[in-house]
Amino acid sequence: MNLKTEDYRVKAGKAVSLKSWKTDEKGSMDKEVGKVTATLLADELAEWQERLYAENKQALLIVLQARDAGGKDGTVKHVIGAFNPNGVRISNFKVPSEEELAHDFLWRIHTQTPRKGMVAVFNRSHYEDVLVTRVHNLIDHQTAQQRLEHIRNFESLLTDSGTRVLKFYLHISKEEQEERLQDRLDHPDKLWKFNAGDLEERALWDEYTSAYQDALTTSTEAAPWYVIPADHKWFRNLLISQIILDTLKDMNPQFPETDLNPAEIKIK
User: Fold this and answer.
1) Where is the Polyphosphate kinase-2-related domain (predicted)?
2) What element of type H or E holds 215?
3) Closest C-alpha to 185, from 100, 69, 99, 84
4) Is there a smaller number of Cβ atoms within 10 Å at the N or the C end of the chain?
5) In what order do the strands lie in the sheet with 88-91?
6) 45/245 Cα distance (integer angstroms)
């Protein structure tokens, strides 16, 4: 398998046009081969997460952003599910509470970032405060740009403190979203996922496209964005698994050394 993951990385300091990124790409790969490969990657992910947890010197933050029905929960289930739950913390940032609104917009975010040895997953993240708020005119353009700069600085603080940051935008087409929303209506066991408000957000497709394009400009060498073709769920899972695995290997966590000599210890 030769997945060119760099092809999906947003270059630092570059403007982004989502029209130039495919949503239905499969990497010239057969679905069954891809699913088997993803299973093998899951085993490796578990091994490297154990190293990270045991070393207890570095941390990894994974940010998932997508439109409604874009596949965030599926990614958590099929990719993050490979990790030992003891070493993972999943957070979901929705409408802020009254207490959270009384602080700066990153106040509620910082407490959920990973401590050393841990993987944190933001299933929706601090980027909601430059997406939903902007599309619904809760903040103006100037405030949005200020917040994007604050986010860059915030993520720089995290990386300087030993936390690697990976950000994934799950890129689906409008047609694929329609199919997924309809699927929820057609199947009783999925109906609970349907929210009529999703249709109101869908009507703002172009506005969200513009807001996401601005958010993606926060891609840096230390905290990159990846635009993941997400129309095919299996390829989405495979590509994200490979990027996370490559990152963990680059972090190269090591099992801690010990003075214990196993030969001298007898268990009775």
Assistant:
1) 30-255
2) helix 205-215
3) 69
4) C
5) 88-91, 119-123, 59-66, 163-171, 225-229
6) 6
Sequence letter at residue 133: T
SS3 assignment for 32-91: HHHHHHHHHHHHHHHHHHHHHHHHCCCEEEEEEEECCCCCHHHHHHHCHHHCCHHHEEEE
Please give the backbone phi and psi of residue 165, each rounded to the nearest 5 degrees, phi first: -120, 125
Q: What is the pTM of this model?
A: 0.95
All residues at 6 or more sequence positions from 173 whose CB lies less than 8 Å from its CB, including other chains: 23, 24, 231
Q: Over the stretch 84-104, which tens digit does the pLDDT of each residue have?
A: 999 999 999 989 999 999 999
Token digits for 125? 């993240």
Contacts with 145 (C-beta within 8 Å, 6 or more apart), sequence order: 214
What is the secondary structure of 222-249 as a DSSP string? Answer: SS-EEEEE-SSHHHHHHHHHHHHHHHHH
Per domain, the residue ranges of the chain are 5-251
For residues 85-121, one letter each, b for 16 or more C-beta atoms within 10 angstroms of the residue's C-beta and e for the rest, the string is: eebbbebebeebeeeeeeeebeebbeebbbeebbbbb
| Per-residue pLDDT reduced to its tens digit, 12-57 | 988 999 999 999 999 888 899 999 999 999 999 999 999 999 999 9
Alpha-carbon distance 130 to 215, whole Å? Answer: 7
Q: Does domain 5-251 have CATH number 1.10.510.10?
A: no
Amino acid identity of 117? G
CA distance 43 to 48: 9
Give, for 123, the enclosing helix (H) or strand (E). strand 119-123
